[in-house]
Amino acid sequence: MMEIKPESRPKAVRSFVIRSGRMTDGQKAAFEKHWPLYGLELNQGLLEQVRNFGRSSELIVEIGFGMGDSLIQMCLNSPDANFVGIEVHPPGVGRIINRAALERVENLRVYMADAKDVLAECFADRSIDRIQIYFPDPWQKKKHHKRRLIQNEFLTALQPKLKLGGILHLATDWGNYAEHMLGVMESEPQFVNLGGAQQYSPRPSWRPETKFECRGRKLGHGVWDLIYKLTP
Known about the structure:
Blueprint: H1 25-38, E1 39-40, H2 49-53, E2 59-63, H3 69-77, E3 82-86, H4 90-102, E4 108-111, H5 115-122, E5 128-134, H6 152-158, E6 162-172, H7 175-186, E7 191-193, H8 211-218, E8 224-230
Parallel strand pairs: 1-4, 2-3, 2-5, 3-4, 5-6
Antiparallel strand pairs: 6-8, 7-8
Helix pairs in contact: 1-4
């Protein structure tokens, strides 16, 4: 039986903690049955679309897909695109590959690893059409803000992987983190805000509204989307 734990290189500060969520029998079984098809690993080196998907197409990468429901929906909605999901929490990975198999999704591959390592080791420069990061951990306490994923240092590592003209799409339901994201992004001159300078964007058609988000909206909770284009 394969060892079910995320891959990660040593780091001083992490943007995540491994939650001790219990895996269902179905999620465990999914790793045995479906990881060979859907799973990718750091030691495999650079992703090659023809080798890993059987074709070359628009490449969309989602960092932190949680339980994966919206990512599966995007795969179904855009069958001509290739999607790569990155997540460190095994229950979410087990769930998404199980559902992908049930839905016969062919345009999805998954890393169970630290996104920083995946970006550094598994994507060639200028190879990704869109990177999406939805509802990352907001690390609410001020002393933990250094753990937030969206930082200038992370963008320095991320931006070479995007194609020129590629899209970075962020979303959060935590107002303070939205302000933080906006401040960081507006300080990066190579990214142009498609919503207008210092502005948030409407939710685009490609991002499905989650059940949690819909329930929160009815209760008056906010959700903020930020969409940026990488320029030369």
